[in-house]
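Question thread 4412

I'm putting together a teaching handout and wanted feedback from people who do this every day. The idea is simple: show students a protein as raw sequence, then show them the structure tokens that encode its fold, then repeat with a second protein so they can compare. Below is the first pair exactly as I plan to print it.
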Amino acid sequence: MKKIFIIGSLIVVLGAFFLVFYFYRNYQIFSSAQSTQVKNDSLVVDSISNVINQKPLSNPPDKLRGIYITRFSAGTKKSIDSLLSYIKSNGLNAAVVDIKDYSGYLTYKIDEPIFNSDGANGSPSVSDINNLIKLFHDNDIYVIGRITVFEDPVLAKAYPQYALKTSSGALWKDNLGLSWVDPACENLWSYYTQIAQDASLKGFDEINFDYVRFASDGNLSTINFPCWKSSVPKAEIIKNFFAYLRKNLPNIRLSVDLFGQTTVVNNDMGIGQLIEDAFPYFNYIDPMTYPSLYISGFDGFSNPANHPYEVINFSLKTALLRLINFEQQNNLAAKNQSSTSSIVLASSSISSSSVSENFILNQWPKIRPWLQDFDLSGINYNASMVENELRATYDSLDAPSGSAYGGFLLWSPSNNYTSGINFNNP
């Protein structure tokens, strides 16, 4: 425990440097992702005509072990065949498929006027999403639909009155040249729940939300917000959005991607993310614990990327402690809750004064980290390093508290996953 507080103090002292470093590394990763995702409309997954909407798996796995699939890979038969083979041959059971990615475009067309008028339907990569989901389900693979939220060039262009602007009135753009909408513009929130509702009806087993935050890179000092006021904490905006998602998607399994450092940092890092704010509303908390994104000096390591076990073990143990503390602080409210709720999964504990305002779920969320399977800054993440990440995840979450371990997700922006990894428990 003493070590945690020491490291916490170190992170606070080095906060400014840490944020610049972290956001620059994110820029490298996602810049690489864009360069490797080449759309080819002529290659789409073989389609069987008139495939009906699928139903979520009736008995989904308790511990999900999956990989990320871009919207372009999802629409390419060769890629899907290869990724499906990788999942099955390695004993994995889940796939995270983009529904809407950083571009703002939808992977498949949604038959709602808003998505035609704003252009989100303008570049589909999958012609038959029902058939794709059926393919996964026929192989007993749990399908998670990923929605990128406030980084949204399509919506920002269509509705510039809700977009981040520069002082000149032009659309503000981050380091990747992508524009954002203001998270505080609440009248946009239903846009994302409409996408989630449609995906759930199509048969996705779970909806994952990414970029649920304020912008982190680019010339932040030039941003003009159409809705956000500096008197309102950014974390309050994001927490309210979390609550909105659960209230409007009550019977859908939900997960959220958080910066990996939310596990150990006690402030919102200027982006509005606090891990405790997510606990009551999601079935899975997915911190992006990529060792290459941790600053020099973290946990005493000059280059944390070379120490995947130690970095992830420390991060996830701290996340688990925070979850346990949150539960203990709110267990009285949980005991006072009715056991008749029809809402699936996640936490049943927030303060009793706000119980009537929130949809509270009937069990605690599971922690399911994103793990690094990509090279960065000259460091090759080979099978041994990924195995160290897996062992750290298991040791920190499953061994001390099996109820908190939700599995893991591998992130490779190019979808080129490492071969030869031993995915069995250590």
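The second pair follows. I'd like the answer to focus on this one:
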Amino acid sequence: MSDLITIKFDMPQNEFIHIMVTDPMGKMAFSDIIPEGTTDKELRIGSFPDGIYFVRLINSDKTTFARVKIVKLGQQ
């Protein structure tokens, strides 16, 4: 089982994008700066507990939000 997810986005490619992933309580689970020209980001979720997370992509022109549900199957 893979502990990777891929976040794909369509934002202007001529500048960097700041990606932030938070849990419902606002605790930061992941943060990174994505270089210009990039259209996706692989994220290791192996250490994330199951649950709902909020992904925020920010550049100088706009902010985009998404909700992601992580459920790890087959773990005991």
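Top answer:
Good format. For the second protein you could add a caption like this: The chain has one domain: 4-70. The CA atoms of residues 11 and 62 lie 8 Å apart.
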